[in-house]
Amino acid sequence: MELHFAADAPPLAALAAAKIAGVPLKVFNQDQPAGSPPTLLLPNGERLRGAYVLLRHVGRIASLPFFYGQDACQSSKIDEWVEYAPIFGSGSEFEGACSSVNEHLLQNTFLVGNSISIADVAIWAGLAGAGLRWESLRKSKKYPNLVRWFNSISAEHDAVLGEFVGTYLSKKGSAKAVTSKLKESQASNSRSTAVENGDHVTEAASSRPAFEVDLPYAEVGKVKLRFAPEPSGYLHIGHSKAALLNQYFADRYKGQLIVRFDDTNPDKESSEFVDNLLKDIETLGIKYNAVTYTSDYFPKLMEMAEKLIGEGKAYVDDTPREKMQHERMEGIESSCRNNSVEENFKLWKEMIAGSERGLMCCVRGKLNMQDPNKALRDPVYYRCNLTPHHRIGSKYKVYPTYDFCCPFVDSFEGITHALRSSEYHDRNDQYYRIQTDMGFRKVHIYEFSRLNMVYTLLSKRKLLWFVQNGKVESWDDPRFPTVQGIVRRGLKIEALIQFILEQGASKNLNLMEWDKLWAINKKIIDPVCPRYTAVIEERRVLLILTDGPKDPFVRILAKHKKYEGAGEKAVTYSNRLWIDYADAESISVNEEVTLKDWGNAIVKEIKKDENGIVTQLVGVLHLEGNVKKTKLKLTWLADTTELVKLSLLDFDYLITKKKLEEDEDFVDVVNPCTRKETLALGESDMRNLKRGDVMQLERKGYYRCDVPFVRPSKPIVLFAIPDGKQQTVAK
C-alpha cells in the first residue's frame, strides 16, 4: 500500500499504528500539496482519504490481536477514543483532555480491553505530537496514570516508535511545531468524504456532533437499509442526503444497502430516469448490495390487497375524488366503507380489468376516519391506471400507492431501518398500522430533516416544468440542483459529500446557503487546479511595448506555482499584448504596472477615440522595477494567431425568491435571466483542455470546461464555478 501525504502534515496515528502492527506502507511524503488530506492507495487501486480513516483501516487489516477490538462493543469504544484524539491539538483543552484520560487509566492498563488498540495509538500520537508541551507535563507528577501508560507503550514498542519519532517528530525544531499544522489538517480532514475514480471513501465523523446519534435497535452486521427513489426524475441534492445517510449507517453498522426503485406510477416514470438515477448513485460513490423494483412485487402486493379485503381491513370505494378528499378532511366515513366483502371483491375485479366501472374505484384501508392524524383516515391503497409501465408494459391496470407498498416491501425485503425525511412524520403511524394489519414485523423508522437550499426548487414536478418549457436544456443543466447539473457546473463530488454529511442526521429543518457548498468546493479545487489567462474580447485593448521583443519568444511556466502536478504550459512573450478594457481604462499616463509572470512596464501614452474609449496603450518595459510597489497587476496575452476563442458562461438562480411559501406559485418568481455569455480569448495551451477539466482564469474566477477545443472557429465553452462568495439574483 502507498501512503501519500503533505510533508508538513503526516498522519501520525496511522503511521504509528502501521509501525506497531507491522503493516507495510510505502511512504510518499512530498507529493501532496499543503493542507491536502493524507491518502492511502490500496492494492486494488481504491483510495482511502483522511487521517483517521487511515488509522481505522490499519486497525481492521492488522494481524495484531484485538487491535480494533475483540467484539462490536469494544470496536465502538475504540471509535469513541479515536474521535476524541483530535482534542489534543486544541491548546485550550489540552490539559483537560490529559486529566480525563489520566482518570480513565486509574483502573485500566489500556484504554479499551486488555491489550493495545488503535485507541491507544491515537491518544499516544496526539500526546507525542504535542511536543514540548507534553514533554513538560510528562516530567511532572500531575498525571501519573497517563505518564505511566505513555511510557509503557513507548518502551514496549521502542524499536519501531523510536524510528517513528525520529522520522516525523524531530524535523526542523520541536515536534510541537511540526504537529501544530497536523492538527489543523486533521480537523479539516475529519469532516471530509471523498470519491476517487468513482470509489466511495467515507471518513469517520469525528467532528460532526450530528453523527454521534445511533440508529435505534441497530446491531452491527444485522442492519439492512434501502434507498428508494421514484424513477420520475434525476437525483438531486436533496435525494443525495438520503442516499449518503443510508450509505453512512450501512458502513457504520457493517450492514447491507439496497437500491429500490419505487416504480408504482407509470404516468411519471421511465427507463431513462432509472438509468440516470443509477448513474447518479454511482457518481456519489454509493456501494449497494442489490437493485430491486417495487414492480417486482406487484403479484404479492395484489395478494396482500386481496387478503386485507377478505379480512375486512380494506374496501373498494367509488366516491368521487373531490368528495373523498372532503370527507377525509372532515372525518366523514364513506358510504362504501361498510360494503360486504363480496361487493368489494366484485369491484376489485372490475379494477383489475380496467373496466369503465373499475376506473371509478380505488381500494382504501379501513383504519380510523376519526383519528386526529389525517394520514390514518382510510388512505388509498390501490388505484387504476391504464398507462403502460416502463418495465412490464400493460400487464396491470391497477397500481399500489406509496403508502401501501412501502411498508410491505420494506418488511418483505428484510429492511431493519427505513430512513425517511421528517416531511413524512405524520405518515409514520400509518406506516406502522399498515404493517400491523398485514401481519408483518415492525421496521424501525429513522427521521432526518429534508435538505432545502435557498433560491432552489427540489420538487421533481416543478423541475420537470423547467425542462418541458425550455427554461433549461435538460436535467443535467448547470442551473439545476440535480447531481448531474451541479457536477456539470463544476462541483466536485467530494465537496457535495462533505457538505451533506456535515448536516448529519439532524431532524431540525434547515434552509442551506449554496455559498457554503461552493466554499467547500473552492478549498478542494484551488490547491490543485491549473491557472490560465483569458482576455475579454469586447473592447480589448492592445498594449504596445516599444522596447519589447519584436520576435516573440516562449517560456515554459508552471500551471500552478504551488502544485507541480498541474503540469506546465508554454507562454508566448511579445511586444504586442492584449489586456482587458477594464484594466486599460484604470491606467494613468506614466503609471508603472506589473505584467504578471514577466515584470513591470511603464505606460507612456494612452490613445482614445472620439467618445473617450481607450483604444491603445503604448509603454516600455521596466523589468527591474519593484512589483510590490505597483497598484495594478495585469493579466495579458501576446497578440498571436495561436489564441483560442472562449465562451464564458455564468449562471444565476432559476427563481428570484429565497424561500417559496407553500401557497405560492413558483411560476410567478421564475428568473427571466439566468444565463450570461461573455466572449473571450484564451492562451494557446487551453486547446488541450478536456471536458470536465477545472481551472482558474487568473483574476476572473474558476471554470469548468464543458465543450473542449474542436476547431479555431468554434469557441471552448467554460462554465463559471461559484467560489462561495455571496451570489446576487439577477434583476
From TrEMBL:
<keyword id="KW-0067">ATP-binding</keyword>
<keyword id="KW-0547">Nucleotide-binding</keyword>
<feature type="domain" description="tRNA synthetases class I (E and Q) anti-codon binding">
    <location>
        <begin position="634"/>
        <end position="706"/>
    </location>
</feature>
<keyword id="KW-0436">Ligase</keyword>
<dbReference type="InterPro" id="IPR014729">
    <property type="entry name" value="Rossmann-like_a/b/a_fold"/>
</dbReference>
<dbReference type="Pfam" id="PF03950">
    <property type="entry name" value="tRNA-synt_1c_C"/>
</dbReference>
<dbReference type="InterPro" id="IPR001412">
    <property type="entry name" value="aa-tRNA-synth_I_CS"/>
</dbReference>
<feature type="domain" description="Glutamyl/glutaminyl-tRNA synthetase class Ib anti-codon binding">
    <location>
        <begin position="529"/>
        <end position="618"/>
    </location>
</feature>
<dbReference type="InterPro" id="IPR050132">
    <property type="entry name" value="Gln/Glu-tRNA_Ligase"/>
</dbReference>
<dbReference type="InterPro" id="IPR020058">
    <property type="entry name" value="Glu/Gln-tRNA-synth_Ib_cat-dom"/>
</dbReference>
<dbReference type="InterPro" id="IPR004526">
    <property type="entry name" value="Glu-tRNA-synth_arc/euk"/>
</dbReference>
<dbReference type="InterPro" id="IPR020061">
    <property type="entry name" value="Glu_tRNA_lig_a-bdl"/>
</dbReference>
<dbReference type="InterPro" id="IPR004046">
    <property type="entry name" value="GST_C"/>
</dbReference>
<dbReference type="InterPro" id="IPR011035">
    <property type="entry name" value="Ribosomal_bL25/Gln-tRNA_synth"/>
</dbReference>
<dbReference type="InterPro" id="IPR000924">
    <property type="entry name" value="Glu/Gln-tRNA-synth"/>
</dbReference>
<dbReference type="InterPro" id="IPR049437">
    <property type="entry name" value="tRNA-synt_1c_C2"/>
</dbReference>
<feature type="domain" description="Glutathione S-transferase C-terminal">
    <location>
        <begin position="101"/>
        <end position="155"/>
    </location>
</feature>
<dbReference type="Pfam" id="PF00043">
    <property type="entry name" value="GST_C"/>
</dbReference>
<feature type="domain" description="Glutamyl/glutaminyl-tRNA synthetase class Ib catalytic">
    <location>
        <begin position="222"/>
        <end position="526"/>
    </location>
</feature>
<dbReference type="InterPro" id="IPR020059">
    <property type="entry name" value="Glu/Gln-tRNA-synth_Ib_codon-bd"/>
</dbReference>
<dbReference type="Pfam" id="PF00749">
    <property type="entry name" value="tRNA-synt_1c"/>
</dbReference>
<comment type="similarity">
    <text>Belongs to the class-I aminoacyl-tRNA synthetase family. Glutamate--tRNA ligase type 2 subfamily.</text>
</comment>
<dbReference type="InterPro" id="IPR020056">
    <property type="entry name" value="Rbsml_bL25/Gln-tRNA_synth_N"/>
</dbReference>
<protein>
    <recommendedName>
        <fullName>glutamate--tRNA ligase</fullName>
        <ecNumber>6.1.1.17</ecNumber>
    </recommendedName>
</protein>
<keyword id="KW-0648">Protein biosynthesis</keyword>
<keyword id="KW-0030">Aminoacyl-tRNA synthetase</keyword>
<dbReference type="Pfam" id="PF20974">
    <property type="entry name" value="tRNA-synt_1c_C2"/>
</dbReference>
<dbReference type="InterPro" id="IPR036282">
    <property type="entry name" value="Glutathione-S-Trfase_C_sf"/>
</dbReference>
<keyword id="KW-0963">Cytoplasm</keyword>
